[in-house]
Design goal:
There is one protein chain. Helices cover 52% and strands 5% of the residues. It has 17 helices and 7 strands. The chain has a 3-stranded antiparallel sheet.
């Protein structure tokens, strides 16, 4: 019998409960939170002992059965697979759980796996881009399933056009264009690999959309001040969120770039920071004093000492894992709500940074350098909000000499 954090575990989990409790504390869980987790594990241990289940039998099906019985018993907490994840994260490296059986891929996923490998090897696309391509074409491939076989030989141009006309309506222009681009890549690959007799890539119609037709929507200076002042820098969360939003709004970083920022990317002596952007391109930018001070304040009184990995920004709650792109986006969502601003994405702060640079007199070329645009056309859209430059082009309205408008 082992007593760990007020819980008794006498069944199959007894040899591992002390190590599990220690890992929780090392990961930054408070003692009270760790006690709750171990109490939950004690309940699982009693269920396993009563059901005659050993560690070697603890597969996904058995865990689902346990959670179903726990929910049926009226428990309101720790009743999902997510609640079991800390324990699984501890037990899996020890090799005490049953090895999951590999489920053979169906014809749809098997073809998509081959397509994914080709995109990575031959096209040199990043993992994130490939994931987007595969997700876009999965419904198209699934639509060719006939029983247990994919009907690719019977594919026609009408099938391609019909899919685009069904999948694209109601979507944003960028999303619709990604579907068409992904579909064309798939159709080209199918032809190159001999799975279809001819390439039907040209059968995918283009999406109506005009470059530079939109208008970047940055925040006004007063709105940005409200957003930033909503971060309570007397708290850990506030110091982290303030530094994150400064990187977005002052340097124009993307949410994924902030999430990927590592401790080794900051050169404090030179006052520079390395940003890993699209296509895994690394670029060195100067680190403004205001942002450096905010990050330093977060390091001194915010970033947990037991944070996992070398990421600059981590989760507030244990386990202190690196902040994700979605986590950065949620910081902006919550900040906008606190400031009484409309719901916004992190990319709007990138537009805010570009607009602020233009208002300060920076030319478009310099704005493009800071935003790390590959093409000048990507920066040209901000010409629409450069009121000072546009004022030079304004011609006076003709006035009738008699006093009326001509």
């Amino acid at each position: 019998m082992v007593k760990v954090l007020r819980s008794f575990v006498r069944g199959p989990l007894e040899p591992h409960v002390e190590g599990f409790a220690g890992q929780l504390l090392r990961q930054g869980y408070s003692r009270a939170s760790a006690e709750q987790h171990v109490c939950f594990i004690a309940h699982l241990d009693r269920w396993m002992r009563g059901a005659g289940v050993g560690l070697g039998d603890l597969n996904g099906e058995v865990l689902d059965r346990y959670l179903a019985e726990r929910r049926a018993a009226g428990y309101r907490e720790y009743r999902s697979v997510r609640a079991l994840q800390p324990l699984l994260d501890y037990l899996v490296p020890l090799g005490v759980l049953p090895v999951p059986h590999e489920v053979p891929l169906g014809p749809v996923e098997e073809l998509l796996a081959d397509f994914r490998g080709w995109l990575l090897r031959e096209r040199g696309l990043t993992e994130g881009t490939v994931r987007g391509y595969v997700d876009c074409v999965r419904p198209f491939v699934a639509g060719r399933l006939r029983g247990e076989v994919l009907d690719l030989a019977g594919l026609t141009a009408a099938d391609v056009t019909g899919f685009v006309r069904t999948a694209c309506p109601g979507r944003a222009v960028g999303s619709a264009k990604l579907i068409v681009c992904s579909l064309r890549s798939l159709l080209g690959w199918l032809h190159v690999t001999g799975q279809v007799p001819m390439s039907l890539a040209t059968a995918a119609p283009s999406v109506a959309g005009w470059r530079l037709s939109g208008l970047p929507k940055g925040l006004e200076p007063a709105e940005l001040r409200r957003l930033l002042s909503g971060c309570d820098r007397h708290t850990t969360v506030g110091r982290r969120d303030f530094a994150v939003m400064l990187l977005l709004a002052r340097m124009g970083l993307r949410a994924g770039e902030v999430a990927a920022l590592g401790l080794d990317d900051i050169d404090w002596r030179r006052g520079e920071v390395v940003i890993v952007g699209k296509g895994n391109r690394s670029e060195r930018l100067p680190l403004p004093d205001e942002i450096g001070a905010a990050i330093a304040a977060y390091f001194r009184r915010g970033r947990p000492s037991d944070a996992e990995g070398r990421s600059v920004f981590v989760r507030v709650h244990a386990p202190h894992r690196p902040l994700t792109t979605g986590g950065v986006t949620m910081i902006v969502f919550d900040g906008a709500q606190r400031a009484g601003l409309p719901r916004m994405h992190a990319h709007r702060l990138r537009h805010t940074a570009a607009t602020a640079m233009l208002r300060a007199g920076a030319p478009l070329a310099e704005v493009g350098q800071v935003l790390r645009h590959r093409s000048a056309m990507s920066t040209a859209i901000y010409a629409k909000v450069d009121h000072a430059a546009l004022a030079v082009l304004v011609r006076p309205w003709p006035v009738d000499p008699t006093g009326g408008l001509s």
